[in-house]
């Protein structure tokens, strides 16, 4: 074999190895919880969650900085344990879910902070406005399903916060809310 052929073969193996370092996962919609809470006039924190969540994760266990995540949330799936309040939150006063049906998060940088922890910064898009938000993320582990060894799941927990007014939810103060919205996220994802 010529030297140039050998170099090309070695380069191909190295590039293939690095290209496959990250594993691909789909977020399991039945095991994805995106919860939030915000101050309600100093009386308590108003809580809610989104029931329809999907997305994908590229997870490089050897170098988490090369990982990525994309999450899509159906804005109209908001649930705050009160139908009247849910309807109001979907209106133009808050999420304007008809005009902006999706809330998305796409990672832009990941900083490892511990053996199983990282800061994941990404663009949160809400009401057509995109701004960076940083989440503190913990990898909870990975294993096959107890009843199906061919299906591998991994799981993550994350917390973070953002200012709702910065994203255009200008009516928050009129109802004694916020302005900060705290996030509490848990997702399980299935390896492709």
TrEMBL record:
Keyword set, alphabetical order: Signal
Domain Lipid/polyisoprenoid-binding YceI-like, chain residue ranges per copy: 24-190
Protein origin, superkingdom: Bacteria
Pfam families recorded: YceI (PF04264)
Signal peptide annotation: 1-21
Matching Gene3D superfamilies: Lipid/polyisoprenoid-binding, YceI-like
Stored InterPro entries: Lipid/polyisoprenoid-bd_YceI (IPR007372), TTHA0802/YceI-like_sf (IPR036761)
Protein name: Polyisoprenoid-binding protein
Species of provenance: Metarhizobium album
High-level lineage: Bacteria, Pseudomonadati, Pseudomonadota, Alphaproteobacteria, Hyphomicrobiales
